[in-house]
TrEMBL record:
This is Type-4 uracil-DNA glycosylase. It is an enzyme of class 3 (hydrolase). CDD domains: UDG-F4_TTUDGA_SPO1dp_like. It comes from the Bacteria. Belongs to the uracil-DNA glycosylase (UDG) superfamily. Type 4 (UDGa) family. Signal peptide: none annotated. It catalyses: Hydrolyzes single-stranded DNA or mismatched double-stranded DNA and polynucleotides, releasing free uracil. Keywords: 4Fe-4S, DNA damage, DNA repair, Hydrolase, Iron, Iron-sulfur, Metal-binding. InterPro entries: UDG_Type-4/5, Ura-DNA_glyco_family4, Uracil-DNA_glycosylase-like, Uracil-DNA_glycosylase-like_sf.
Length: 231
């Protein structure tokens, strides 16, 4: 058998011995997108970060500086999921640290949500696509198991999908973000809301009623109220 075939055999076999082997040899998992990452594989976010930084489940591993896994409270009540890292994120290894991220922090602070205590932020994919292009379906699929494990570990009360790519990548939702934003939806038993991406707000600076910034203000107030209700 080739190395890849051995790993595929390892993760597809359902015998007890091989399942135990999969647990003690997690370093095999990131090598190929054909090899599944079963739920419960990781016990800590640091393990996910280690794998993402040596992952080659898609071609983006060839061009990254750092994998961008997440930031914030690992037990946060709110999880924010964006699209993909940009240049600033690739350089620092942290999500949402550029202008869009700074705006997002201000939006959250406006309703007294703190990114160190109330929020955990991550992206659908962990490596920057060349020239900040939209990630492909294959790239999202290859990275999705890591994101599902992040959601399981954080176990947030609320998930916010920032932008259409995050929403579609995880839920398969095909409606445009402007049509569904601000609406509470249920996904996998979790309460979720699609919201506009802060980068979109930067391109549309108007604060008039009905503008993107005005809509975001309505949505983030709704999130704050829902969290208060749940707590």
């Amino acid at each position: 058998m080739t190395s890849s075939e051995e790993q595929l055999s390892l993760f597809q076999d359902t015998t007890t011995d091989l399942e135990a082997s999969a647990v003690v040899q997690p370093e095999l998992i990131p090598t190929d997108a054909k090899i599944p990452i079963p739920p419960g594989t990781y016990s800590a976010m640091t393990e996910i970060a280690q794998h993402c930084n040596k992952c080659h489940r898609c071609g983006l591993g060839e061009t990254r500086t750092h994998a961008v896994v997440g930031r914030g409270n690992l037990q946060a009540p709110i999880m924010i999921i964006g699209e993909a890292p940009g240049q600033n994120e690739d350089e620092t290894g942290l999500p949402f640290v550029g202008k869009a991220g700074q705006l997002l922090d201000k939006i959250l602070a406006s309703v007294k949500l703190d990114t160190d205590s109330d929020i955990y932020i991550c992206n659908v994919i962990k490596c920057r696509p060349p020239n900040n292009r939209v990630p492909t379906t294959d790239e999202i699929s290859a990275c999705k198991p890591y994101l599902l494990e992040q959601i399981r570990l954080v176990n947030p009360k609320v998930i916010l999908f920032t932008g259409a790519t995050a929403l579609k990548g995880l839920t398969g939702e095909k409606r445009g973000i402007t049509k569904i934003r601000g609406n509470w939806i249920e996904w996998e038993g979790r309460l979720c809301m699609p919201i506009l991406h802060p980068a979109y707000l930067l391109r549309n600076p108007s604060r008039e009623r009905g503008s993107p910034k005005w809509l975001m203000w309505q949505d983030i107030q709704s999130v704050r109220a829902k969290l208060d209700e749940m707590q």
